[in-house]
């Protein structure tokens, strides 16, 4: 059974890597938008078939087989990432552009329990990392980990920004690690993959811990989306507090998440303050966007929330 699963993963990885090479050679670029924007764009194009690569691998539209080279289509079919949709075909993966790299992730809509999400939050997370990575240390490579890495975008881009660093990508979702491995290979970045529940899957201390924990209340408890606890912040607090314990002296936590604001109060930072104090950290904390996923406020779980803010926490251990 194990050998069969490994062989299937290898087939999928090889096919996806070839897809990314093909898209790069074709000059493919796509900015992945919020789910609500995606719905609106697709509604505007209702009844249309895909006309090109961005429609297939960006907008997740059904397509005719002739739009892809026969050899590539055969590989993708063997890997199970192209499925029949009536008389048409549909890709089960999307490809997004971030800086100069391509990242494979799950197709829209991301309804599966093991879906791998990529969107505007990923871009904000990258910006936070880019602006707050510590300088490289001469003779001692930085040891960095991206906890709950999803597509691996955060850790991969950090590896690109700090060449020579030792980078681990961790996720509890096997599909996420498969995609992250493909994305790292496509970016020509050497990383280590660690499957498991956050810090239980990685050993030792780190110079940089990056994390973009889920922060919404999700009835289906999808791993990439559901934060748990009171208004989705439980997992983020747990991950951040554990990260502080695994930082080396002078090490840095770079965390991007979202917070439901209730009566003007941000309870995430209030929950984090005792942990930051015990760890002897100096830190900065700021909203990077005051209003995201406003449609969630229509759900009963958010009846007392006035907005959901995207926030960035950067903590440095003494």
Name a few traits of the molecule.
single chain; alpha/beta; 2 domains; eight-stranded mixed sheet; 12 strands; 34% helix
Number of helices: 9
Detail the poorly predicted runs: none
Mean pLDDT: 95
Amino- and carboxy-terminal Cα gap: 47 Å
* CATH homology superfamily name of the largest domain: Vaccinia Virus protein VP39
Order of helices and strands: HHHHEEEEHEHEHEEHEEHEE
Q: Please give the largest β-sheet.
A: 8 strands, mixed
Q: What is the percentage of strand-forming residues?
A: 15-25%
How many domains comprise the coordinates? 2
* CATH class group of the largest domain: Alpha Beta
Overall number of strands = 12
- What name does CATH use for the topology of the largest domain? Rossmann fold
Shape: globular
Helix/strand-derived category reads: alpha/beta
Radius of gyration: 20 Å
Give me the CATH architecture of the largest domain, please. 3-Layer(aba) Sandwich
Helical content band: 25-40%
Tell me what you see in this structure.
The protein has 318 residues and is α/β, with parallel strands linked by helices. It has 2 domains: 2-106, no CATH class; 120-317, Vaccinia Virus protein VP39 (Rossmann fold, 3-Layer(aba) Sandwich), CATH 3.40.50.150. It is built from 9 helices and 12 strands. The protein has helices at residues 2-25, 35-44, 53-57, 70-78, 120-132, 153-161, 174-186, 234-245, 267-278, and strands at residues 82-85, 88-91, 93-98, 101-106, 143-147, 166-171, 192-195, 206-211, 247-262, 265-266, 281-289, 307-317. Strands 5, 6, 7, 8, 9, 10, 11 and 12 form an 8-stranded mixed sheet that branches. Helix 1 packs antiparallel against helix 4.
